[in-house]
Each structure stands twice: as structure tokens, then as C-alpha cells.
Amino acid sequence: MHTPPASIEAASLLARTVSLFSNVRSKRSPATLTLLDYFAGVRDGRWRCDVDAVRVANQDSKADAERLKVKLPAITPSGTFRGLTQADLIAHSGILCLDLDDVGPALAATQKRLRTHTAVLAFHLSPRGTGLKVFLAILSNGAVEHAACWKAAVDVFRPVLPAGVKIDPAPSNVVSKCFVSYDPDTWVAATHRIPLLPLSPCLSPIPERKKEEGVISEESMSDCDDGGSQPTSMSDFLGRTVCACAFTDEVGETSPAYARQARAKAERAIAKLSPPLARIFKNYLLSKPVNRGQRYAFLLKVIPPLFTVISVGVLTDLLRLHHQWQTGTWSSPIDQHMREVEAMITDWACNDYRAKQLSEHERQIYDSLRLDRYREAYRILRDLSMRAEASAPFFMSCAELAARLGCHRDTAHETLKELRAERVIEKAEEGQIWRKGSRPRATSFCWLEPLPAPSDAVTIALPLPALEPPLKAKESAPAGLCPACWSRSIVAPIGGPTCAC
Questions:
Q1: Which of 321, 356, 391 is the last residue of a domain?
Q2: What angle do CA 399, 403, 408 make, to 5 degrees?
Q3: 282: exposed, middle or buried (C-beta count within 10 Å: 0-12, 13-18, 19+)?
Q4: Number of structural domains, the chain?
Q5: φ, ψ dihedrals at 206, nearest 5°
Q6: What's the pLDDT score for residue 366?
Q7: I need a surface site. Which of 8, 372, 373, 385 has the fewest CB within 10 A?
Q8: DSSP per-residue string spanning 452-467
Q9: What is the mean pLDDT of the chain?
Q10: End of a domain among 356, 376, 397?
Q11: Half-sphere exposure of residue 256, counting CA atoms within 13 Å on the CB side?
């Protein structure tokens, strides 16, 4: 009996960061982005104009195409770097990018074989449009191990590829760069475990993936057939393709005593949540009906609105806590539950939020933000601005943002400062800390970017619930303002004591 190869969750790999250089010769400090953001950029046309210019030139002159290609931005898929040499490696990403050159007539056949290979994390067209970039997971922490993994990967994939397909040796170097590209059919396997290369000779060969198993991509969506209609969103796609994602509630026995202990432990953890997270947990999760056998449908309803009010890390933590609180109602193992949560979040971030919730102008601003934390803050503040009436200022304190992002208060302050520098928000009124005899007040901000008209907005599965006010106000409400609205510091009107209800 063979030992199965070591593997890792695809969602975990997609969250890893790589360096993005302005071009292959640039020595300036590179930016960083996650693999998920990179694949979304390739798929949604972040670099389309420059890549299209390369492909047009390639039809007439390969030399002209090469001169244009070297000006493209490039990532280092195998890690983050300070510079252009192996010594500049900061951290290995555990990713290897195979470069298949000039695939030519065998392109369709090669893509078909890659989709069914379980070791493939993702692939997309090269900048010229004649080759493929194939992303794999490897067991490597440095340059020497990286080179050995490249050789192992070549041994694994050479028999799989059609005859005549060449594998470029350049990615055997850990610092090898991958030019950005444009491919609306970028393929990403988001919901299964990826075997790690190299495989020991004693291990069994990597089995082929069943047709589109665990895959969330434009192509797998088009393969679904439900009475002739095609899925158009994450909710539609995941809801109708159980064969692809295999999300099920396993039937199992949980003793009443164990369930009581688990719920009691969860209740103690809920009680320790910071006030902002306790408020969000109550309004977005505890207030929603939960039924046996409806876990999957529940996740489809709560993930989209939660994605816009808290960071991805905080979101997964709250859903893990909620699963523990539902012990005895839901019988699925926590590992399975979290795999499905990560896959849903990944697909919503790639296929729905960025592409459908944001306007073209908003997408440009969103993509230009350097860190994931800035983009998460962008989503949070944009959500608050959309709740405000007629472009009115909205309140946000550093403590509130820190809780929502899952970071230190100083980091939240720096994030707000960055968004102000990027002209996403501006300060409307300085806040005031609590002092005896005075009311505390969060700083108010104005959203500077144009928001989509209500008629153009994409409807989410559930209406966004309003945030509840803190349970206690520090002093009595002034005349003309009820106690509930007085305590609602995050959404209270600025113009004076006018009751919001």
C-alpha cells in the first residue's frame, strides 16, 4: 500500500504573497501581492492593454514583441524578494511556475490535460499567447531545494504533456520571473488539496483529477448544465454544481454532552469578542436562522455581506467560531467546513466582488492599493459610505477598524493614513476621546470615489443588516435624540441631535 503524497489546501496557497516588479530589470523595491490577486488581475485584464500590444506585435515580428514584453511588469512566483538575485530572497512561497513555450497547435490538448492533473494549482496563457504558465506547489525553502523540485516537476509533467511541448529551464532558478499576462480563461483549482513536489520514488504517482473536481473557474462554470441556463455568480455556481465542489453535510453522531460542552466553549469565546466584532457576529450570524442540513445554504447567504465589513482573516475566524457554536445542529467536521468557507471566500473575491460589485474606476483604485490590508479597509469603508445618506460623512475609529481588520490599532491608523494619501477618503471631522463630562466621538470621513448608482449595483443574496449600536451609552441622550440613536455612534448623524429613527 502506497503512502499518499503530502498535500496542502489550494486556498492556503492562493493566500501566499509574491513580489511584483515594474519590469524584469527594475531594481526598485518591488510591491507584493497574493497569488489570488495576481490570478484575478490576469483574468480580469489588469494588464490587458500592454499584453495585447505584445500579442499584436508578435504576429509580425518576434523581435518587436520581445522588446515590448520585457517592459511588462513581472512577478517572482517562488517568493518575495528585495532585489534581483537569489541572495535577495525574503521568503519562499512554496510555488513553482513551469513555463511551457510555443505550445502551438497542442494548446487545447495541453490545457485539457492540465485541468485533470491534481498537482496543478493554476495556469494561464503567456504574454505572447503561444505558451502556458503552470503553477505548482513544491516542498522548498531555498534555491537548492527549488532547483531539485523543478527537476522533479519536469519528470512528472513531461510524460503528461503532448509531444513537442517544450519546458523552459529558466524557472529552475528561484529568482526567475513570470511576466504578467491576460487570459480571461485563467484556470484556478480552489477547493481541493494540491500534492507537494517532489514526490519520493516510494510514493504513488499523482492521480488524475476527476472532471473539474474542486475547480472554480470560468471554464468549469460553462461546463455546468442546468436546464440550459448558465450560472452567473458564486452563489448560483456553487449552489448548482455539487458535482464540482462536493459540499455536503456528513451525517454523524454527536453526543449531547459533547455538543453542550462545545457550545459552552463557543459562548465563552463569543463573550470575549471585542465590541465591534460582537456586534457583527450577532447581526450577521447569530440573527440568521440555522437548520440541520442547511449549512451550505447558510454560508452562501452570510459570506457576501460579511466580506465587505471585515477582513478575510477575521471572517474565517468568526465562521469557525460559529460552526463550533452550532455543534449538534451541524455534523460536518470543522476541517471540511473551513475548506468550504475558504473556497467560497476565494471564489467570491475573484469572480463576484471585484468584477461585479465594483465599477471600472473603483477596480482601478482597488487594484492599485499595495497591500491586502488596504484593499480590505477599502471594502469596509466603501460599505459604510454606501450606507450613509446622500454622500454624508461616516464614522470610523482606529479601534473599530483594527477590530475589523484583525490588526493593531497603530496599523489601522497607518491604513487610514494610506487611504487618505491615495485620495480614497478624506477626514471630515476629528474625533474626540472619552473624557468625564464629554461624549466620545469617532473621526468622521468622506468617501471621495464616485459610488455606483443604486440601479447599477449588484444585488447580494441577503440585504445588508444595519450594525447595532453599543449596548450602553456613556451618558444620557440629549433632548431630541432617543437612547438607541444616541448610542449608535458609528452611524449617528453629524448635524446635531436629530433622531435617526
A1: 356
A2: 70
A3: middle
A4: 3
A5: -65, 125
A6: 87
A7: 8
A8: PPGGGSPPPSSPPPPP
A9: 76
A10: 356
A11: 0
Residue 375: closest CA among 422, 339, 327: 422
* Same domain membership, residue 344 and residue 388: no
Q: Is 129 left (phi over 0), alpha (psi -120 to 50) or beta?
A: left
Against a cut of 0.85, is the pTM above it? Answer: no
Degrees, nearest 5: CA angle 384-386-389: 100
* Amino acid code (one letter) for 315: L
CA distance 194 to 121: 7
Q: Rounding to the nearest 10 degrees, give the CA dihedral for residues 180, 181, 185, 188.
A: -10
Please give the pLDDT value at position 293.
74
Pick from 135, 41, 54: nearest CA to 93: 135
Q: How many CB atoms lie within 10 A of CB 145?
A: 15
Dist. CA 282–CA 63, nearest whole Å: 61
Domain-located, residue 497: no
Residues 366 and 321 in one domain: no
Look up residue 282 and give its amino acid.
Answer: K
- Whichever domain contains 85, its CATH number is 3.90.920
Q: How confident is the model at residue 229 (pLDDT cuts 50, 70, 90)?
A: very low
- Residue 242 cell numbers, joined: 455539487
Full domain range(s) for residue 90: 7-209
What pLDDT score does 198 carry? 66
Query: Is 462 inside a domain boundary?
Result: no
pLDDT tens digit sequence for 78-116? 999 888 888 888 888 989 999 998 888 888 889 988 988
Q: Which three cell numbers stand for residue 492?
A: 449617528
